[in-house]
Design a protein that fits this description.
It is built from 13 helices and twelve strands. By secondary structure, it is α+β, with helices and mostly antiparallel strands. The strands form three sheets. A five-stranded mixed sheet has the order 5-6-1-7-8. A four-stranded antiparallel sheet has the order 9-12-10-11. Strands 3-2-4 form a three-stranded mixed sheet. Helix 6 links the parallel strand 7 and strand 8. The longest helix is centred in the last third of the chain and has 21 residues.
Length: 360
Amino acid sequence: MELQPPFRKIIHVDMDAYYASVAQLDNPELRGKAIAVGGGGDRGVVSAASYEARKFGVKSAMSNVLAKQKCPHIIFVKSDFERYKELSAKIREIFYEYTDLVEPLSLDEAYLDVTENKKGNPSANAIAREIRCRIYDETGLHASAGISINKFIAKVASDINKPNGQKTVHPEEVLQFLEDLPVNKFYGVGKVTAAKMYNLGIFVGNDLKKKTLEELVQLFGKSGAHYYNIVRGIHNSPVKPNRIRKSLGAERTFFENISSEIFMLEKLENIADELERRMKKANTKGKTVTLKIKYSDFTQQTRSKTVSNFLQLKTEFMPIVKELLYQEKLLNSVRLLGISFGNLNTEKKEPVWVQLKFEF
């Protein structure tokens, strides 16, 4: 079965080792060195690693202790989110010079629909290259890109020629590309799902394609239908310029585990102050309050309560947080606490987007 036109032209731009690259940009003495962004203490976790550190097996979410074991000469640097936001804003300004259909996924990556673009350029590949050059010229940072007919394939493709490269999967190449793709490279297939697929004899897209829709749904639930479609190049999710925030929160990891609920309340008071500040800044209110607890053994628990009216102020939601804390006995000493709001008033706003289709 061949894919039928018209096709969209989607670019996924992904900054290379963004947090670490920003640190190296601002501190020339760090360039070319193995660095990790995050707290340098033994209880800290790596937020991002430079490519020099990645060569030694250092990855994001890895404990600092393990990072030091793998790379004894690693240098830890602190996060600077204000700087990350500043540069991210500059990068997005570049995107908007080409199209209004920009869907930011985070500070360092975004989808762009350039099917019809402000430059009148028919080549999505050329636009991606031009954008990457602009980003480097104006910020000093490298970006990689993936280009194809939908968001899924563009996302997968942006990883192929990293760092500082790009990959285009043309419409006539899509099916073969997906059939040859290892299942662990499929965006959204994590280690657990990949292991399950391996046990079923599914190693590449072509193996996945041999399974019927019914078989995949039986094996993987709702995700089964998703796998059935994407391996056939079907992924119709449009680029959504107005992504609606679904939650907003604040959390803290502690240097020492906490066992006393009195101490936890003190920490939660500070977290609540920060959350109120963020809620006000975002002009957001919510109805569902969630308490996040991560224990010393790294197991995690969440406790939530939904109320009938929208809340924003600490004086309004802190009593609920206390109620959730005392809701049941703690399972262990605690290393992280967080408070978040869901069911936000902003969720009622409908995103406005325009879907345009032209030949690739």
